[in-house]
Amino acid sequence: MKLSQFKFKLPEDLIASHPCEVRDEARMMVIHRDTGEIEHLRFKDIINFFGDGDVFVFNDTKVFPALLYGNKEKTGARIEVFLLRELNEENKLWDVLVEPARKIRIGNKLYFGDDESMVAEVIDNTTSRGRTLRFLYDGSHEEFKDALYKLGQTPLPPYIKRAPEPEDAERYQCIFASNEGAVVAPSAGLHFSRELMKRLEIKGVEAGFLTVHSGLGNYREIDVEDLTKHRMDSEEMEVTPQLVDLVNNAKDNGKQVCAIGTSVLRGIESAVSMGGHMKTFTGWTNKFIFPPYDFTVASAMVSGFHMPYSTMLMMVAAFGGYDLVMHAYEEAVKEKYRFGAYGDAMLIL
């Protein structure tokens, strides 16, 4: 497959800048792979397609407030700092991106907060844009994280052209998020409300969780036409024995396994064992999935509507079939579905 095969015309006004008022009231396009039929429903209708013993696999990663604004010493220049990951707890070292990158040098100090009480020093230039910061803070690690996160804002995707608002802290987060570490929300999971989760539980649908700490690589532009030459950024993930038992039992009993989002699908496929089963996994994955690809574990998936040329669109096309998915995307544009993390949903059966 070529990069150019994942181009489609997406009007700017179809990119959702705010979430649906009620999580499970978003629209849902249902694609039936066996017949090619497409249905237009509401997300809460997902319950009608699953029953007792089926398994939904969710990503329980938790997005942290990774976006900070500081001022450079002496010049006072405003610097955007995007926290990527904590490198060393004891020394308060963080891997970050800074913007504008050209203004920052090793040894520069940055001041954060109205009172400039949080200070960081640039100690390394790791990539052309990346930096390592050491935060200068007296106090426990817990107090430091609290102080740092109070200064931070929700890291909305770059295609949402507005500043983060207070409600984003809750809405750009799944209700079951528990393992902190992502800067990108697993957006398919955003559609699940507490009421819907309870209704699924009552119906006998079981919930399993894996963790994939989704990073900014999800938004990195692919710069090669030949997709076999693209290298995905690595993401930290964990598949527990509990999830493995849940999924493998469902498979053995002929039940459906539904992956909630591309991060879950990627996580499952990074932990596949023989005969369409899963195995435990703790580590990093840089698995890049695009058509054609043979999925052996998940029998259904939920996804949002992704941007042109994105790796997420490629994974959905691999699962649903390239021709059918690209046709569905044309239909979605025509029917004015909302795209992006705050947009509508797609169920592929």
Rg? 21 Å
Low-confidence stretches: none
Roughly what percent helix? 10-25%
**Widest β-sheet, arrangement of strands:** 2-1-17-16-14-3-12-13-15
State the order of secondary-structure elements, H for helix, E for strand: EEEEEEEEEEHHEHEEHEHEEHHE
CATH fold node name of the largest domain: QueA-like
Instruction: Just name the CATH architecture of the largest domain.
Output: 3-Layer(aba) Sandwich
Query: What fraction of residues sit in β-strands?
Result: 25-35%
- The CATH superfamily of the largest domain is QueA-like
Number of strands: 17
Overall shape? globular
> What is the level 1 CATH name of the largest domain?
Alpha Beta
Largest sheet: 9 strands, mixed
Distance between the termini: 23 Å
How many DSSP helices?
7
Oligomer: single chain
Overall pLDDT confidence: 93
When the domains are counted, the total is 2
How would you classify the helix and strand content by structural class? Answer: alpha/beta
Task: Walk me through the structure.
This protein has 349 residues and is an alpha/beta fold. The chain folds into two domains: 3-63 and 169-348, QueA-like, CATH 3.40.1780.10; 67-151, Thrombin, subunit H, CATH 2.40.10. The chain has seven helices and 17 strands. Strands 2-1-17-16-14-3-12-13-15 form a nine-stranded mixed sheet, with helices on one face. Strand 9 and strand 10 form a beta hairpin. The relative contact order is 0.21. The mean pLDDT is 93.
